[in-house]
Amino acid sequence: DNTSNKNRSISPYNVLDLRLNYSIKTRLVPDIGLMLGVYNLLNEIYETNGYTFSYYYDSAKLTTSNYKAPAAPLNFLAGVNIRF
Hints:
It is built from no helices and 5 strands. It is rod-shaped. The mean pLDDT is 92.
């Protein structure tokens, strides 16, 4: 959140992604592009975002809840691009 409170922030993280592109040229189709992406190559566990809120319980006790959204583990994406 915008309070700069460390208890309400996500931990810093680094991820490693890999993307390969290959282009094929033929007489029939001028350009065929192939793509393979590997994301979160090291399968890191991390959160990308979240939310927090506070409320009073029994009119006296302040309770703060923090919820974080986990990021995707190792995943792949492939694609084909055909240009005429």
